[in-house]
Write a structure and sequence with these properties.
The complex is a heterodimer of chains A (161) and B (82). With 161 residues, chain A is an alpha+beta fold. Chain A contains four helices and eight strands, in the order βαββαβββαββα. Classes of the chains: A alpha+beta (161), B alpha+beta (82).
Chain lengths: 161, 82
């Protein structure tokens, strides 16, 4: 496989309050090249049991970020993945604000010539984003709130790359 | 001046989102943190925790990173996005 030498071109990163639609985003990405042979995607969502707690049921996550840094940080994750796997195009959408249980939080789609690059780059971008992009989750329960602690398993997931 | 920002749990603990601090030549991140603790009191010592992350001009740096006048410095807890 030849190493890509030019700069990554088709990288679309959005930090937004609004929800996203996987089908719409995938169709957009498919327009990025006739040589796309595989598209891998990942969606992260707010699950009901975010924390082991006696605080009752989780209602929502409030996602805070560092606006001046977030976009750049996620783009840097994509750039690293692109340098390694040379995919054709990617889209990353991360939502912020209050997201109730069941809501979509994050979307990563990678379009590549072959499935292996698509799968690997998609997983790498998620792992890198989880340990380096400046987002923080606050869990909202029926009667209380608390900040979600960083997981060592996320750091370990990144270490394997 | 150095513009200092605090995020998430740190912002709540310190009850402060942003602060301007006079620039002192030769300061690194840890020296700045000590000055904030001296001025703000013991609750600010969270800035010295080894898990506290620091970014200068939106790039994550080590605590030994040397600052320049006009830098934007952010302190925050380990990130939990995704």
């Amino acid at each position: 496989m030849s190493k890509p030498t030019k700069k990554m071109t088709h990288c679309n990163v959005s930090i937004q309050l609004e929800d996203f639609d996987l089908s719409v985003e995938t169709r957009e990405l498919q327009k990025r090249g006739a040589d796309i042979g595989g598209i891998a995607s990942f969606i992260g969502a707010v699950r009901s049991s975010e924390l082991d707690s006696q605080q009752g049921a989780l209602r929502a996550l409030e996602i805070e970020h560092y606006p001046a840094m977030t976009q750049r940080s996620v783009e840097a994750s994509c750039e690293q993945a692109w340098k390694r796997w040379g995919f054709i195009a990617c889209t990353v959408i991360h939502r912020v604000g209050r997201l109730p249980v069941g809501a979509q939080i994050v979307l990563v789609i990678v379009a590549a010539r072959h499935r292996k690059e698509a799968f690997a780059a998609c997983e790498f971008i998620m792992d890198d984003l989880k340990t380096s992009a400046p987002f923080w989750k606050k869990a909202e329960f029926e009667n209380s709130t608390c900040w979600v602690d960083a997981k060592t398993s996320d750091t370990e997931a990144m270490d394997k790359w | 001046m150095i513009k200092v920002l605090f995020f998430a749990k740190l912002r709540e603990q310190l009850d402060c989102a942003a602060k301007s601090v006079p620039y002192q030549a030769g300061d690194d991140v840890i020296a700045l943190a000590y000055r904030l603790v001296d001025k703000g009191g013991s609750s600010w010592s969270v800035l010295l925790d080894k898990e506290t992350v620091c970014a200068v001009n939106q790039q994550i740096v080590e605590h030994s990173f040397i600052l320049n006048d006009g830098d934007e410095v952010a302190f925050f807890p380990p990130v939990t996005g995704g």
